Amino acid sequence: MRILLTNDDGIHAPGLALLEQIARTLSDDVWVCAPAEEQSGAGHSLTLHSPVRLREHGDRRYSVTGTPSDSVNLALRKLFAEQMPDLVLSGINSGENLADDITYSGTVSAAMEAALAGIPAIALSQAFRDMGRSFAVAEEWGPKVLKPLMATPMAKRTLVNVNFPACAPDAVRGIRVVRQGFHDYARGSVVEGTDPRGRNYYWFGLEEMEHTLDRGTDLEAVAEKFVAVTPLQLDLTDHAAIGRLAEQFGG
Amino acid sequence: MRILLTNDDGIHAPGLALLEQIARTLSDDVWVCAPAEEQSGAGHSLTLHSPVRLREHGDRRYSVTGTPSDSVNLALRKLFAEQMPDLVLSGINSGENLADDITYSGTVSAAMEAALAGIPAIALSQAFRDMGRSFAVAEEWGPKVLKPLMATPMAKRTLVNVNFPACAPDAVRGIRVVRQGFHDYARGSVVEGTDPRGRNYYWFGLEEMEHTLDRGTDLEAVAEKFVAVTPLQLDLTDHAAIGRLAEQFGG
């Protein structure tokens, strides 16, 4: 099985090194194509106004001077002319990607880019919260969640979002398949400051958000020390609203 | 009614000027907060690694040195302390935002940012194709589509994506409420080149994509010269897959 790894923290990130270590236990044909620099918050963005560079870092290891989506896109078009990957794994992200934050997530977006290309994809993130920046849960539970996922056929244009809880590995209570939750609105903080030349600036922070731990959501599962597995799809249509709106437009 | 306008083509874009002209016929409390520069392809990205600047361009007109999501986010946090907007309009984009391209769209992402904040939002785009860069259809049909939409209550965390077809205004056949379509995969082109210093680069192009004009989709409606109205929502969960995956994990 040919596996392509990518992420949004960049090719030198420790979470990618761990993902590579796990992937090599699952396959002997593992490729890496990741952003040259950290791209957190990049969302599903493509670099259109400037060129990107592809750098070879060794056998089947590449970086791209662009976003996670750029990395997947360029890899699929330039590295795999003959045999496309069977699976794309994105991560392991430094920090959770839960609830509506996934729309900003470069980690999830890289998996979306693969899904759009018809390749099964899994995004993986390690929650930290107050636990320090430890990937210990991802290291122990990564193979336990990936093996069953890889054994399950995925529908076209779908992906899976996995989040490892912030706790000691032996405190993990298991794996839960859950839906995407929603944050109550508090889109981080905005810090106001003055630059060295006396001009005003704003800087977006990422403060802890208030949220309701609805039952059956990724937010609840991770808070309760479960590995959260959320299947995602790419049709954003609000199907329930189509009939109502059609009436409004007379038909 | 307080209306906030934004876009991804930047504060000086002609599509924003047209949107402002239309919005002023619908309300006398219209605000603009848009990116200082063109941000096409920015997707739902936030600027986290550097500060952003807010510049006042006149009465209720502001630009932000960042992405469309930055612009909405900063506007909602800094411009409207006392009374939030009742509606956010994003556009009118130079070029269509249809099918799975909406995940890359700064225009749609700005509307998503508003929807996440609980504010009704509508993204508007003018298809061009071979018709030159004319906003004539948006100019004539904009009010006809906005008035009914503004009269229809929108559920929380939903938005509407509107695309005006590329044709003469008198060739437009009406308004259709349709679902999001999907492109057959052909994620644009990648041009390979050599820079002035002899180094290799890649540049993503946006070539015409092959797609299937499935019935009832935004792609079909615009191809058949209808204004396409697509209600969107922000829950990406693949609900149909939850049960199947839960079985896989013994749950």
TrEMBL record, chains A, B:
Which amino acid positions bind a divalent metal cation, per UniProt?
8-9, 40, 93
Chemical reaction(s) catalysed: a ribonucleoside 5'-phosphate + H2O = a ribonucleoside + phosphate
Record-level GO cellular component terms: cytoplasm
* Superkingdom field: Bacteria
**Cofactors demanded by this protein:** a divalent metal cation; Mg(2+)
Return the cofactor note field. Answer: Binds 1 divalent metal cation per subunit.
List residues of the Survival protein SurE-like phosphatase/nucleotidase domain. 3-186
User: So what does this one do?
Assistant: Nucleotidase that shows phosphatase activity on nucleoside 5'-monophosphates.
Q: Which InterPro entries match?
A: SurE (IPR030048), SurE-like_Pase/nucleotidase (IPR002828), SurE-like_sf (IPR036523)
* Family, per entry: Belongs to the SurE nucleotidase family.
Q: Where in the cell is it found?
A: Cytoplasm
Protein name per its UniProtKB record: 5'-nucleotidase SurE
Q: Fetch the SUPFAM superfamilies from UniProt.
A: SurE-like
User: Which HAMAP family does the protein's record reference?
Assistant: SurE
Give the UniProt keywords, A-Z. Answer: Cytoplasm, Hydrolase, Metal-binding, Nucleotide-binding
Please give one Gene Ontology molecular function term for this protein.
5'-nucleotidase activity
Q: Which Pfam families match?
A: SurE
Enzyme Commission code:
3.1.3.5
Which coarse location class applies to the principal site listed for this UniProt protein?
A: cytoplasm
